[in-house]
Fold this protein.
Amino acid sequence: KGNKPLEIMSFKEQTDATTALLSGRADVMYADTPVAGYASIKNPGKLEILENSKDSEPMGAAVKKGDAAMLKAVKAGIDKLMKSGVYKDILKKWGVEDVAIEKSVVNPKL
């Protein structure tokens, strides 16, 4: 009682939502873990991430069905990035290392 009604704002770009939060036009920003992590990295010391869940939706690469050569090449590339540590370095750069996968899988159960 006595609180102002909740106003939900929407933005075409996630960066606009981050700007609204940082400028005081918005009180809260909702984003999936990778986006929130990236916003935090790009604005050090200015954002607090309330939840960082490994249960975020899985993300992956897609190739045209039947293109076995491309599928093999993409998987080999991802596997190489993971084995060399570059995969985790990339995730760390963008502030999303907490959602790293342990191995790449073709057609995982979603």
